[in-house]
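Quick start: what a row looks like.
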Amino acid sequence: MFGQDFVPDWIGNIGGTGIDQFKEFKKDANGGVFVVGEFQDTLFLDDGVSQYTLVSQGGFDGFVIRFSGDGKIVWANILSSTDNLMVNDIDLDANGNIYIVGDFKGTVFFDFAAVAAPLVVSSQNGYLASYDTLGNYNWAVKLGNVSSDGQAISVVCDRQSVPNKIHVAGHFLDSINCDPTYNSTPLISSGGNSVYKAEFDDIGNFISSFSYGQSGQAFLSDMEIYSSGDLLMSGQFIGSCTIDPQNTAALVTSISGSTDTYVMLIDPSDNLLWRNLYGGVGLDQITDVEFENAGDILIGGYFSDSVIFNHSSGFYEQTIGGTDAFLLKCNAGGGFEWFSSGGGIG
């Protein structure tokens, strides 16, 4: 039996002469869609009526595109760097303001009109930039240090708080300072990659930050927020690490020194509510996490060889071939609900 055929309401064409990477999209309250990613050389946009051409400065440049509910391009803006710039994620607050995160090196005018002063870094740093619904610049801050590398991977807005709070997470080497005023103590890694989470208000003021992953290596893949303000953070770790925002829980160790995955839920005060670890002898990766209406959680990714997803059973799931995709559901307390996987012999 075949599933129901899906007929798209509209199709937008995004492509160019170099490497183009579509990273994320978000819908607004009116059905419009915001799309972000990065490209090389020239990017062509076509909605069937209007055509746009974006040209990079030589390396990777970022793009932010707004489509209307019927698929027409409302505006398209480019973020250009003298080196490289990546756009990794986007979210919208309750007022329709746009927040994007990524990483960059060199000089970048986050103000599309090039009126506000650029941000300048000599090593790879993360960033958080805000725009209004028309694409006008609000503000931007960098996340990093002069001599250490950092990336901003995920951004979520707490639309229930007043004012709205903006959460940014990613990973870094050595140290990172998430406070644009540099009045706060930098977060320190113990040698490998560590994960950070920083909180800002909706006008760019720094509120707080923490890091985890000390002793081993930890990476962030995705973050989502529930209506209660609880945050779900997911990623990978290697070796023995702390997977805990307060760094007080016992170290966790990946199986056979391989890459294992984690999902943890923290409350609005950054206290650990629960965490789940999934791993096996091969490469395991979580790529996406989502909340359902009742607080249940869907986790997607891929794994190789064998891995345990249901710890109460102790049963290892096996791949069909090399690497298989998986979808896992947990209840609001992190308990196992069901698991499904798919793949081929290659």
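That is the whole record. The chain has a mean pLDDT of 88. Residues 242 and 248 are 8 Å apart (CA to CA).
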